[in-house]
Write a structure and sequence with these properties.
380 residues, Rossmann fold, Dihydrodipicolinate Reductase, domain 2
Amino acid sequence: MRTLGFGIIGAGLMGREFASAIARWCHLLDVDFRPELRAVCDKNPTILAWYRDRFPGISLLTEDYRQLLVHPGVEAIYCAVPHHLHEELYTAILRAGKHLLGEKPFGIDRKANEAILSVWKERPELFVRCSSEFPFYPAVQRIGQMIEHNAFGPILEVHADFRHSSDLDPDKPINWKRMIALNGEYGCMGDLGMHVCHVPFRAGWFPRNVRAILSKMVSTRPDGKGNRVPCETWDNATLLCEATDPTTGEGFPLTFRMQRIAPGETNSWNLEILGMKASARFSTKNPRRLELLEYTGGEQAWKSVDMGNETAFKTLTGGIFEIGFSDVLLQMFAAFMFEWVHGTPRSRFAGCVTPDETHWSHRLFSAALESQRRSAVIPV
């Protein structure tokens, strides 16, 4: 059993999710490695105290990420910080010779992303990936297997979206994701976009062009000091793209939707693939239901398949039970480490986002901004 030494930079919500996944690593049955959390960096002393109280084996708790970078026991770092810090921290991590699991969008803009990838290409021995957990739901793993076996036939349309209603209340206090200086001009695309791009990009469905409609629904928000301040970033984005089916060479519509203001939604990730031989639909609103339509002639009918705990990495949980968000996070972290240790993902759709796939997302989102400015279709 190989032990992998980890550090966390940016130890808030997602950092604590990562630490919690490490704590329940014994839940996985068929892996030949285990992570060990050895160092944590965050500017918030209350957050550091949370780790100190729950993980007494951590040898370094610090507010200075540079101390973590020289820690001899840290081989890899999970970095979950606001977008404006990605370029500084990701490049520093790579130059320090540490493997990296970063957060989307992997740079606040295309220039920052290209700077990160340039440093990575100077250190090809380092394993670098971006976080995106939703493909690890069992239903999406099944969809991935269908793509690999060309079960859909010629592709007619693909729709991927991520919708929640966290900003529906116009009096919700502003945070960094509503500030261009911290979140970036992409707005909701930088925050949510990589999640909707992950499966299409892994399938080889890259957009050739885009017509984007971006919306700012709330112009100001409370600042917590009795004032209202500008809410600068895009709330919602709809991107209508043309992609190419690599099997047939034919074009098809590929739609991405990212919404922070979606009435009735909490945190719903959705995927729909329509093909000539089969079609599939999935939503995290019902995480065990996979809808399938297989056309063999005659009458057409959608069927619902109740997926069990059929994960890429086997767990103690029996196959008949439901899966949840913390479970797919555990799967994603296992996928990162499996590919790092073994040099290849367990399967095509059981791998984290690659640096090149993050670059495709930046090409798309940059073109979407231009499309919004010009009200035109823009090449990607």
